[in-house]
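> tool_call: predict_assembly(chains=two)
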Amino acid sequence: MRQVVLDVAPDVATPARRAAATHERERFADFYRAELPGLVSLARGLCGAAAAEDVAQEAMLAAYRRWAEVEDAQSPHAWVRRTCANLAISSFRRRLVELKALARISPRAPVVPLDEESEEFWAAVRSLPRRQAQCAALRYVYGMSGADIAGTLAISEGSVKAHLARARATLAQRLGVEGS
Amino acid sequence: MTTDIDVLGERAARALHEVSPADVEARLSDLHRTRRRRARGRTTAVALVAVMAGVAAWGRGADRPAEQVATDTVPASVRAALGEDATVVDVARSPSGDRDVVAALRGELPSVVAVVPVGRSTATVVWSAPTPGESDARRLSWATAVAWAPDESRLAIVLATRTAGDGTGSAVRLTLVTVGPDGSGRELVGPVGRCACDGTTPDLVWPSPDEVEVRIPDGSDEGTVRRSVR
């Protein structure tokens, strides 16, 4: 091959630093594999099937961009779930995600529909006020306790209890079942 | 106490989990590709701002503000190493963050791919296109996309060669090569397709140790092509 060396570049990347970077990427990949399916479920529950995968992916991209900071956080899982829940519930940001989805490069698999009862349940969740919808989705998608939801959304446990109680009552009324 | 609405919610959540995406690895590759594409988009946007600022400055007779904006995105070390007249086609930072690999066109010189340590003004040219005197001038190649291997042991380069065309307007032939970051061990992986590359460039990522992905932006082979590299 033809090689023109303008100047000899010192190899400034030590093997230890490279290994550290590789391990960091691997840790993110493991985190991604473990967390993505749940995030897609959370997003689909909160904003519907059309944008769910892209909302989950946006949350993961946000985590990847600041992985060193996220990984050092008390719970990376809580961080990315909160990001996803906020992204899914914000109509403005969700619209941006949908626009980006239109320009995405690889096709998505066709959306698999839920059974009618489940679809009706999540539609009712989506009609709740923002915080109630987030609390209900985290409760059912991840089976979280009130304390876990409070930690994830960075709000007090008392608020979570109040939001969940109101959410249950509204959902029960709309779906015609026992809620309390 | 579990209520009827809880039972319904848990059942609805199980239904959601059952339809969650199975191909997580493909989504992980998408994530790396999206991040890279957006970085490139930001560079393009800033370059456009730079051009607009330059035109405005020319009208006012001000001192070259365009360059000040442009150097915010193309690393200063790359500019210093390759010269201010270099047109940067693509740049990728190594996973460890210590080095940039840059594909550039430099004035009268042929297309080059160089490795530039971050913060340094030195460059090692690891690939250089044949000059017009060495090759058929009608079939000159240039480097159009570059990427680092995850372990930084190799670089991937997509070479573009303008050809007579295939009757579909896809007149640019794309070829994938790999080379060591010191310029050693150049290997031809093979052709990856054709494109019109009309105002767009291919996208290249190396998401796993043994596979490289090339996104062909338009033309007869538009789409993502994967090639084994180990």
